[in-house]
Amino acid sequence: MAIPETMRAMVLDGPRKPLRATELPVPEPGPGQVLLKVLACGVCRTDLHLLDGEVDVPEPPRVLGHQIVGELVAGELPEGASPGGLLGVPWLGWTDGVCEYCRSGRENLCPNAAGTSTADTPSTHWPTPVSPFPSPPPSNPSMSRRCSAPA
Predict the structure, then answer these.
(1) DSSP state at residue 19
(2) What is the arithmetic mean of pLDDT over 8-12?
(3) Cα 41 to Cα 16, 17, 44, 60, 123, distances in angstroms
(4) Is pLDDT above 90 for 31?
(5) What digits encode the pLDDT tens for the residues 36-73?
(6) Residue 87 Cα to chain centre, angstroms
(7) Band of pLDDT at residue 137, cut at 50, 70 and 90
(8) Which CATH number fits domain 6-146: 3.90.180.10, 3.10.450.710, 3.65.10.10, 1.10.645.10?
(9) Which residues face 132 on adjacent strands?
(10) For residue 90, is it left (φ>0), alpha (ψ between -120 and 50) or beta?
(11) Which of 75, 105, 106, 147 meets the CB 3.0–4.6 Å disulfide criterion with 34?
(12) How far apart are CA 7 and CA 29, in angstroms?
C-alpha cells in the first residue's frame, strides 16, 4: 500500500472551540512503532474534557481520539502481524511494567503510564507503539463497539 504524504484530521485549536478540518503530514513511525491507516476511532470522555476545557489541552493544536482499529501499513510489526492486517489500539500506550500495579495485572493504574494520545492522536494515519497493548481485533469485529467500549 502506498502511503500518502498527507492525511485528513479534525483539529482542536483550543478549549470550547469547534473542531477544524485540515490536512496534516502523515507521520513516520519511530522505533517500536507501527503506522496505521485508521479505519475506526472512538472518542472517549477524556477527549470531551479537552474539548470542553475541563482539563488543560497540552500543546494545542491537537487531534482528538485514541481508541483505534487500523490497518498496518508500515513500521515494526508485532509478532504474528502482517502488512495490511488489522490492529486494535486501546487508550493505554505504555506502562513501566515494574510497579505493583503492572505486576498485578492492573496496568491502567500504573503511576508512570502513558496514554496513546500523549504523542498526538489519530486522524487517517497514526503511529502507535507496537507493544505491549495493541492487539489484533476479533476476526469479525464490530469496529464501533471495539473502539468505544471495553471488550
Answers:
(1) -
(2) 85
(3) 21, 21, 10, 20, 8
(4) no
(5) 888 888 777 777 888 888 887 777 888 877 777 888 88
(6) 11
(7) low
(8) 3.90.180.10
(9) none
(10) beta
(11) 75
(12) 14
